[in-house]
Design a protein that fits this description.
The complex is a heterodimer. Chain A is mostly helical. Chain A contains eleven helices and two strands, in the order H-H-H-H-E-E-H-H-H-H-H-H-H. Chain A has one domain. Chain A has a two-stranded antiparallel ribbon with strand order 1-2. The termini of chain A are far apart. Chain B is mainly α. Chain B has a domain of 212 residues. Chain B is built from 15 helices and two strands. Classes of the chains: A mainly alpha, B mainly alpha.
């Protein structure tokens, strides 16, 4: 019983982190139909920026802010100068995002070398809560809370505001949206920026949780991929459900059978795909 | 391709002779390092061409092709180091493993289309990477499997000699190339191209589109497996990196830069990328950055790849003047009126 409760709590906090990571990816896919291979690297960049700021100022929230904004700006610049011309050509976009990913990776390696760095979580989360006979690490609760907050904000902006309506219009039909006077290119740019911002945000959380080291970006990327494939690309609801499925499966199977940790994600993916090729909440696919 | 005039035939002949001379006669006089690079290039030629069967001829843009390459390589590595299996056993069981897994995975991957197919193939390749990376007892995890001995094929040749191994590789490459060429020239290959161009049309004509795609997926997986077998023998080491995202994207880049749907193009791409990567890494530690720039430039400026570009040039030369052609109309308007 204790095993189940503790592991469920861990899985839930892990799901929170995955959601922060995958929501941006899914959002970018919905609007731009780009499979963003550089998402993991943006996450890592967020972690490194956060580490520098936290080390200099000691404030976790300042680190969070700087990392989010910094990575968001990198994303916006990448969209404007590198990805915009490749609209509607997924294979070329893949090459481009991969190029961006390994470029940033190498820059980070040049600056921070190959050491593993650890980012300090705020002191007040560094405590252990006791509920009955069980002990819970407070930082995980903090992470879950933040993910829920981000989910509510995203949902509100997406569903209730004018900006959200513009994004939804572009997701549904780019041409018609442009015909109605929406600047679809600008929407794409801001959405890519927002997706990158979420990756940076997740990066700071994730790195305070584990550690920062080169190569971590391509280790988290498969997880984000599977979340988005399971939940359906471009769907916020899908990102929530997908990250819960992946986190619970991965966490329990990792504890029971560590050798197949990544591969355990393969089975749910195969099952979902044979029932719904576009994921649980995904839209119907269109050709390349 | 339909009308092959004398000029393009002689052009083809010249190229064929050049390639034969460079690949067949040059290696004994080249420095050892270049021979090694050429051997490696030939291996990746097979992998890139097998991916081209999917990307260029069937219209299935698969990003996870390196998974089958890695499975072939690991099967050979495990069989030959743990069980001391001979060449034939390794070769056939590796091809069987790669093609067999492609057959299993193809069953549900082919349900997805377009961008979804792209992402799902990559997702699955990464699951395989995860399996190889974590399954220490079987694959050696991060340390990989080393000390794979090269087969001597019962010929009493010294396979550790780079030039001898190169010629073995050249023969294998030639066999694979001819097989793939025959495949795309066959009615089966033509049906694949038809499916790529219009799936609904082929379906209306009564073809079993799904089965054709499925078979193409399995065949491509099998050829990638062949590449994997010889990579394991060549490198005498396989590691988790061989199934990673880098490898997947590298093969994809080879096909894109050479020009998909040309079969020869991906081969050129394989040579270019292998040489570039290895030579740049001799001169600078920041070779990853150089490769990143190559990826970006390829994405931005070569939509059709090298062979696509050459084909277009050739077409331009053959194009006759047509007054109604859009291109000529604009130039005609620029002629000043005589009044």
């Amino acid at each position: 019983m204790e095993f189940i409760i503790i592991q469920s709590y861990n899985a839930l906090s892990y799901a929170a982190l995955l959601f922060l990571l995958a929501a941006g990816m899914s959002l970018i896919f919905g609007v731009m139909k780009i499979v963003n291979v550089s998402h993991g690297t943006l996450y890592l960049t967020g972690g490194y920026i956060g580490w520098v700021v936290v080390r200099q100022t000691g404030s976790f929230f300042l680190g969070l802010l700087c990392a989010s904004i910094g990575v968001g700006l990198v994303g916006m610049a990448a969209e404007r100068f590198l990805l915009r011309d490749l609209q509607g050509q997924p294979p070329r976009q893949m090459l481009m995002t991969f190029g961006i990913a390994i470029f940033i990776q190498d820059v980070l390696l040049l600056i921070f070398k190959g050491y593993a760095l650890s980012l300090k979580a705020p002191a007040w989360t560094d405590v252990i809560l006791k509920v009955g006979e069980y002990r819970f690490y407070a930082y995980r609760l903090f992470m879950i809370g933040m993910a829920v907050l981000v989910l509510i904000v995203l949902w509100y902006v997406y569903d209730k505001t004018r900006y959200g309506a513009m994004v939804r219009a572009v997701v549904n039909n780019r041409e018609v949206a442009m015909g109605l006077g929406i600047n679809a290119n600008r929407v794409s740019q801001y959405v890519f920026g927002l997706g990158a911002l979420l990756a940076g945000f997740a990066g700071v959380f994730g790195c305070a949780f584990t550690a920062i080291y080169p190569g971590m970006d391509f280790q988290v990327l498969p997880l984000a991929f599977v979340v988005v494939i399971l939940g359906g690309m471009g769907s916020l609801k899908g990102a929530v459900v997908g990250s819960l499925i992946v986190a619970f499966l991965d966490n329990f199977l990792k504890a029971l059978w560590p050798e197949i940790s990544y591969f355990s994600l393969f089975l749910p993916m195969a099952i979902i795909l044979s029932i719904r090729p576009t994921g649980l909440f995904g839209k119907e696919a269109t050709g390349l | 391709m339909m009308t092959m005039n004398a000029k393009s035939r002689s052009w083809l002949l010249i190229n064929l002779i050049t390639v034969t001379v460079v690949l067949g006669l040059l290696p004994p006089v080249l420095p050892e390092y270049l021979v090694l690079l050429m051997t490696q290039s030939l291996i990746f030629c097979i992998v890139a061409m097998s991916l081209d069967l999917l990307m260029g001829y069937t219209g299935l843009v698969s990003l996870g092709h390196a998974a089958y390459f890695a499975i072939g390589a690991y099967t050979t590595a495990i069989l030959s180091t743990r069980y001391g299996s001979g060449f034939a056993v390794c070769l056939f069981s590796s091809i069987g493993m790669s093609a067999g897994l492609a057959a299993c995975i193809g069953l549900f991957v082919l349900r997805a289309v377009g961008v979804y197919f792209l992402m799902i193939t990559l997702g699955i390749a990464m699951c395989f990477w995860g399996l190889i990376f974590k399954w220490n007892s079987l694959t050696g995890g991060e340390n990989g499997i080393s000390a794979i001995s090269r087969p001597d094929l019962g010929l009493h040749l010294n396979m550790l000699d780079p030039v001898t191994f190169y010629y073995l590789m050249l023969i294998i490459f030639a066999i694979c190339f001819v097989l793939m060429l025959l495949l795309i020239q066959s009615p089966f290959g033509k049906t694949l191209v038809g499916t790529r161009d219009s799936e609904s049309r082929m379906r209306v004509l009564g073809y079993n589109v799904w089965l054709h795609k499925y078979l193409a997926y399995i065949i491509a997986g099998g050829f990638a497996g062949v590449g994997g077998v010889f990579y394991a023998y060549f490198n005498r080491f396989v590691g988790a990196d061989d199934s990673s995202l880098y490898r997947c994207m590298e093969v994809f880049l080879m096909v894109s830069i050479g020009g998909r749907g040309t079969l020869v193009g991906p081969g050129i791409g394989a040579f270019l990328i292998t040489f570039l990567k290895n030579i740049v890494s001799v001169y600078t530690k920041r070779w990853v950055m150089v490769m990143a720039v190559v990826y970006m430039l390829c994405a931005k400026y070569t939509p059709m790849g090298i062979m696509g570009y050459l084909k277009q040039l050739q077409k331009k030369g053959e194009e006759r003047y047509e007054p109604d052609n859009e291109k000529y109309r604009s130039s005609r308007l620029e002629v000043p009126r005589a009044d």
